[in-house]
UniProtKB/TrEMBL annotation:
Cellular component terms (Gene Ontology): nucleus
Keyword Plastid set for record: no
Keyword Zinc: yes
Lineage, opening ranks: Eukaryota, Metazoa, Ecdysozoa, Arthropoda, Hexapoda
Top-level division of the source organism's lineage: Eukaryota
Source organism per UniProt: Brassicogethes aeneus (Rape pollen beetle)
GO biological process, one term: regulation of gene expression
Gene3D superfamilies: Classic Zinc Finger
Keywords of the record: Metal-binding, Repeat, Zinc, Zinc-finger
PROSITE patterns per record: ZINC_FINGER_C2H2_1
Identification of the protein by name: C2H2-type domain-containing protein
InterPro entries tied to this protein: Zinc_finger/UBP_domain, Znf_C2H2_type
Amino acid sequence: MVLHNNTVKHSIKLEPKDEVPQSMTNEKQNTYNCESCAFSTTKFQKYLSHTIFCKYPRTPTKVNHTLCPYCNLKVNSDLALESHVFSKHKELNDVKEEVELTEFKCNKCSYKTSKLEEYIVHYGTHKNCPYCGKQFISTKGLQGHVLGKHKIQNDVENKFALIYKTYENYSIGLEPEENLVNEKQNNSQKLINMNISDCPYCSFKAHSNFSLQGHVYSKHRELNGVEMKVKLTYKILTCKNCTFASIRPTSYTIHRKTCLSPRETCPYCEKKFRSPKNLQGHVLSKHKNQNNVEKKLAISYKTYKEHFINLETTHEELRSMDSEKQKTYNCKMCDFFTTEFQKYLSHTIFCKYPRKPLIVECPYCYLQINSDPELQAHALAKHKEQNEIEKKINIKTKAFSTTSKFIPNIKCLLCPFETKNRKEYILHHKKHVEKNLRCPYCFLKTNKGRELQRHVFSNHRQQNEIEKKVETSVTSLNCKKCGFNTVRNDAYATHLKLCNETKERQFHLPTHTYKGSKRKSDFPTGHT
């Protein structure tokens, strides 16, 4: 194969590669042969899956059903038959013994069953202590109980095997006595490595400086304040509600949950409240006049502002409350003031340019209208002839542009109703179309005459041309290339596109041009 290039003078020869024989490829790949059968493959994963299948062959999907000898029930397996006989025909089977039942016996009691699930549930109930009879949910909790309470008694009697996960040097082959010895050795090495410090006031031994400071602060606070034998370097956490103090954050958090804030009482009626905010609101609503004279309770500005809507207060009282802390914006036109700048701006605009609605009455029917152009439109629609004689309302030319939708132009064909507004005309026309229009040739029902005309033209055209029960003023759209007829413009346009495309496909074949070379498929049919 040779490739020529017009711009370059040289050419390139491309020779095909020599094909590698299959014998060479088979020599490189390893073959895996099965020992139990004549299976062989070159892929290691297939070889593994086959060996597993040879050792453990799968049971066929079609199960040989076994029948119960007492009720002829079909069962899929022997285990299902044993469980069925044990639950339904146990007494008969004890006499006849036609089915051998594999029973699970409990080692700790005389319980027997043929179901493995029931045996597991029963075995979980034997988590009681052999010495005191206390029940436990897990074996881990039972082992911890025996280690803590009956350790010496269990070493002598050996009723319970102590195999506990907290032993560090634990192995499956060790006996419980060896495990206890290893635990003691590990604990002694830990105590030697740790810096043990004794309390100078008692026989307490602390393993860290933090625990020693916590012990001294909680037990010997007064003695240490005088003698100062132990320096307290950690932060002391004190409770605000009581005299509790501690270095440990865990004990402080536990105390905070139990120690609640003292309930604040009302100085006038002795009612108790959780927070000072609720107490101030109670005093404002119940004992306001009494508190203004005696002043037993100081009320903040925020709570006063919240209760301002329900109380009859003046602006001077609000200005006297904590006005120095928050900046207030006072209106120069009126007595309005606020602490928010945006509300102040909106209020000043309203004061300078107040929006007062202009209410005008019609001189003929005394209807109240908000503006002059609406009054002029109302006079044109309702009192046109009367206004031309009396001329109580001056109708301007600008009113026609703003209120052109009220000028009557649309007339109802069934009644003398007239209006310019399209929505009013549609609502009025629905009153005349309460009865449904029916097709005289089928069971179609519609409320629109246009739909009925289209339906008759498309479905019952020939019959309607003879009888002429429905007048059809619909123009039919016919295709010149084929015998297609329709009434709708959108369906006719889509049909024309499809009709033209199909004819173009018949006479024009697709051509593909390539820059480099030419192929046989590019030429039209018949060219060689």
